[in-house]
Design brief:
Radius of gyration: 17 Å
Strand order of the largest sheet: 1-3-5-9-10-7
Helix content: under 10%
Shape: globular
Number of helices: 2
Largest sheet: 6 strands, mixed
Strand content: 35-45%
CATH class: Mainly Beta
Number of strands: 10
Order of helices and strands: EEHEEHEEEEEE
Oligomer: single chain
CATH architecture: Sandwich
Length: 135
Amino acid sequence: MPLPTIGTGHQIGDGNVNEPLIDVLGDPQTATVTATLTPAQLLGRMLIGNPSTSAASYTLPTVAQLEAAIGGNLPKVNTAFDIEYINLGTSSGITTFLVGTGWTIVGRAAVPITTGVHLRARKTGVNSWTLYIVG
């Protein structure tokens, strides 16, 4: 039996532990050379980097740009979304995430070649977000 939908919480599905949680994910976003990432690249939730000939730095878009891309009412504090990053770089293709205006980065910002990391973007205050580099 599903949980009632009153109050502040909700349940996904009918509570069957064998029920797969299926999500919608568009085509992965890509980045190659050093660049400022776009809000669309972050909000796409999967980013594939391929700095094949040298290291690359990816600067986060400004918080104002991100929130404008989200649109509607501004996200509430503690709103979050996840991004999977895969570094397909070869030789010295390390990628480093850099802050944009309004951002803080927590965790190891340099991602070695042929690895992936889980990123979580979280609104931490007015005009401020934190990118957690989880693993």
